[in-house]
Amino acid sequence: MSTTIEEKIRNLEDEIRETPKNKSTERHIGFLKAKMAKLRRKQIDFQLSSKGSTGYGFDIRRTGDGTVVLLGFPSTGKSTLISKITSKESKIGAYDFTTTAAIPGILAHKGTKVQIIDLPGIIEGAHIGKGRGKEILAVARAADMILLLLESKPLALKIIDTYNIIIEELGKVAIRPDKKKPFIKISKTERGGISISTLKALSHMSEKTFASIMREYKISNAQVTVRSDPTIDDLIDILEGNRTYPKLLVVINKTDLLSRKELKNLKKIFQDAVYISALSGKNLSNLKDIIIDKLELIQIYLKKQGEKTDFEEPLIITRYSTIKDVCAKIHRKFEKEFRYAVISGKSAKHPNQRVGLDHVIKEGDVITIITKKF
Ligand SMILES: Nc1nc2c(ncn2[C@@H]2O[C@H](COP(=O)(O)OP(=O)(O)O)[C@@H](O)[C@H]2O)c(=O)[nH]1
Ligand SMILES: [Mg+2]
Q1: Whose CA is nearest to atom 26 of ligand 1?
Q2: What is the pTM (predicted TM-score) of this model?
Q3: Region 346-369: what's the mean pLDDT?
Q4: Separation of 75 CA from ligand 1 center, angstroms?
Q5: Could you tell me the CATH superfamily of domain 297-371?
Q6: Which strands, in side-by-side order, build the sheet including 184-188?
């Protein structure tokens, strides 16, 4: 009798839930979690493409200084919102969510141009393809920031439940909203086993467990540098790769339908959310400011090999971006043909430091990308 991936995942989830969490079981839990991550990878079956392209179906090119993807259940007001804050109109309610595509618009505000992508509503089970969920989630992987648009008065589900469902769907396709990428650097070696150097003691697992999880990924010799205090899930995320770490902005729409008291109560639950009415325009200019601020855009400068730095036209990109993100922003071929980058500025140890795709850039850096010769 064959069990489906679905069932295998469910069984593993049960087993993980039922296993007591302590020192003597943590290795086993690590094993189960790694197994589950591998199954999830199989289950998704769509390309976990990098930020540069969305892959799978709705092929939207990232443009502008940053990309914000609108996610929410059907009819929460996504299309209304994008038509109010961007220069391109997205038809409102005129189409069915099973037949629509992703529609980009540009929000020009405070000297920056942010791409905002409108999508059909997401529903539970999206990660296994319900309601074109795979296409939607594939686009969400291209986001620097996910704008989660919730409706203040949902009929069937409580607002907190819709929030949880969407966050879970994102998690299942390897999107980690509002999380910083854990700093775990793995350099494979020829021999010598796994040696781990940490800034402070690991509190979520022993070094033994750490190493045993690495071996689940067929890495038995490596130098590992850890600068955070990763959980087992964090480590698996790094080993799996392909995770995206977009920012998350929760926006609650249709506040015009609420009484003062209802609004006050809602604000206690979602304290950091932005409360708007897309229809009446209430609080939209504040929302625009928040979108720009939260994206944390920085400027860097590109220098072509053998030429002068282009200080006239800085490249605008989100904070904590890597050289890989910079490549994706310039042109697809740069990542493919990448050899190394030469970098000067705040993120460099010394001027003209050679770095790889994982290097995290900082405001004002001057960067030269060296590609393979054609
Ligand atoms: N009362 C009220 N209705 C809104 C608001 N925003 C959108 N709507 C309505 O909600 C319905 C769905 O809007 P739409 O933008 O198509 O939602 P989408 O499916 O998320 O794109 C439409 O009838 C809109 O007019 C709002 O702020 N207040
Ligand atoms: Mg819509």
Answers
A1: 254
A2: 0.85
A3: 95
A4: 6
A5: Beta-grasp domain (3.10.20.30)
A6: 184-188, 222-226, 194-198
